[in-house]
User: What shape does this take?
Amino acid sequence: MKFHLRSAAKVNLTLDILSRRADGYHELASVVHTVGIWDDIDIELTKNQAIEFTCNRGDLAGDDNLCVRAVRKWNEATGDKFGATIHLEKRIPTGAGLGGGSGNAAAILLALNRAATVEVTEETLRNIGAKLGADVPLFLRGGAVLMEGIGEKLTPLAPKTGWLIVIKPQESFSTPEIYRLVDEQNRFSGRAEATMQMLANWHRDSLSKLAQEMGNDLQLPAQSVSTLPRICTKILREAGALGAQMSGSGSACFGIFETQLEAQQAREKLESELAKLVPLQNSRLFVAPLCARGIEIMSTA
Assistant: This one.
């Protein structure tokens, strides 16, 4: 069976790091929204158990890619013996805090579930996904989500409409390194203040009000080793963003705009500004809408 799918990116509108558990994982609370920056995935499922994986980016090809690991984890969890030929057309930047790899894994799991003789429940599918990465389950749901625990507890929220500009500097950040800095600097909020504030106003507040309530506990630790988050969020606000911050563990930063026109006009300002700033001269710039899905099945055969 063949599938053509696409998987979205995500941004963390809030990210409160509450504590570090004895097993090394971090308890968190986060309001997350999927964003219409898309990777394309073609997968043909077979019964020969061999997995072939190619990608337009050679540095991402290999058995450790989350697409390959998703097939193996599915077979391990269900007892199926699927093989697969997979091609990933990667557009979402890596090392960015945008969840691109997690979205890819979620897309593969969705295809496997559709092809299986007996489909598993959504809860089971999310549990399989959580074993691949904390962000995988949120892409299976898509839209706006409250994430709790280590990312495995999901509560759906009504999705919002609006537009983002995402800046991905050439420099990428290591998620383990950023969390190491959180531990080293003891930057635990203890309470999910930003998240609870946003949730309290989610259903009644405008996007402009919510944009002012954002917060990310990982941004200050990241700024202790790099000037990029501070520079990016500053120029996004100066370009007219309602609010701006780093997504996840970075290095991507985003600004929120009410309309596509406002975002496009701001992009024009930013393109000339980025050319003047040496640390950002090789940055990638995206204009994209908030979206209600994490994965879309474009065709099957």
Summary: Residues 183 and 296 are 37 Å apart (CA to CA). The mean pLDDT is 94.
